[in-house]
């Protein structure tokens, strides 16, 4: 009587293969979902900065929502520097809502930055991903920029946000080139666009 083992062997193989294909498709759909909502968040953030009156409640709400969406996307794709950047952006919005004085807002954002950097250092993140140092420098500059009001200190705001955005854009370009994470393209484009306004502000402040 023929053995049934080959049948069960091949059946198990095909079932396992089909399951793997289904899981890959599911992961792809999830990845696509987070990519598309990150693009939507990018559009929201750009519109909030360039079309909505500065410092308005609507602008703060849109920046908060955009940063929250990008944080979720970064968490899904395990992009720790992007997560850190969005945490700092959210902290900046909250300090703005609370109308903290620049010195207190700066203390909050820098303390959060220090905690994040300490965590990334102790978990060995920088050893596994050395370019994360570039991204961390970028979000520290952003932390300084978010703490200052454009009206009261345009020089510091323009310089910190401009340099921070360009540094994050450089990090994202390297991260995409190395790891092919699509979210990094969104972050790169977003920060290149964000760098324009503060850099123009900085240049006009120093008389150029």
What would you say about this model in short?
The protein has helices at residues 5-50, 57-76, 80-97, 102-122, 125-128, 132-147, 154-179, 183-205.
Distance between the termini: 92 Å
Overall mean confidence score, pLDDT: 87
Query: Per DSSP, what share of the residues sits in E-state strands of 2 or more residues?
Result: under 5%
Rg calculated over all Cα atoms: 22 Å
What is the makeup of the main sheet? none
Structural class: mainly alpha
What overall form do the CA principal axes indicate?
globular
- Uncertain runs with pLDDT below 50, 5 residues or more? none
- Total DSSP E strands: 0
DSSP helix fraction: over 70%
Question: How many domains, as an integer?
Answer: 1
SSE string:
HHHHHHHH
Number of helices: 8
Can you tell me about this structure?
The termini are far apart. The chain has eight helices and no strands. The chain is globular and about 50 Å long. It has one domain. With 208 residues, the chain is mostly helical. It has helices at residues 5-50, 57-76, 80-97, 102-122, 125-128, 132-147, 154-179, 183-205.
Question: Which key phrases capture this entry?
Answer:
208 residues, 8 helices, mainly alpha
Topology at a glance:
Elements: H1 5-50, H2 57-76, H3 80-97, H4 102-122, H5 125-128, H6 132-147, H7 154-179, H8 183-205
Helix pairs in contact: 1-2, 1-8, 2-3, 3-4, 3-6, 4-6, 6-7, 7-8
């Amino acid at each position: 009587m023929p053995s049934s083992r080959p049948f069960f062997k091949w059946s198990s193989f095909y079932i396992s293969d089909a399951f793997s294909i289904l899981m890959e498709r599911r992961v792809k759909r999830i990845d696509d979902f987070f990519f598309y909502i990150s693009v939507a968040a990018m559009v929201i953030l750009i519109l909030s900065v360039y079309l909505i009156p500065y410092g308005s409640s609507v602008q703060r709400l849109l920046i908060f929502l955009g940063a929250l969406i990008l944080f979720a996307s970064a968490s899904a794709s395990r992009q720790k520097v992007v997560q850190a950047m969005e945490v700092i952006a959210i902290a900046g919005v909250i300090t703005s809502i609370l109308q903290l004085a620049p010195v207190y807002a700066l203390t909050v954002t820098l303390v959060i930055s220090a905690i994040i950097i300490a965590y990334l250092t102790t978990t060995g993140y920088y050893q596994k991903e050395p370019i994360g140092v570039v991204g961390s420098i970028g979000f520290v500059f952003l932390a300084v920029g978010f703490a200052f009001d454009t009206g009261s200190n345009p020089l510091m705001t323009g310089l910190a946000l401009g340099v921070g955005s360009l540094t994050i854009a450089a990090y994202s370009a390297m991260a995409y080139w190395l790891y092919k994470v699509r979210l990094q393209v969104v972050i790169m484009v977003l920060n290149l666009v964000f760098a324009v306004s503060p850099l123009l502000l900085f240049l006009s402040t120093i008389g150029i």
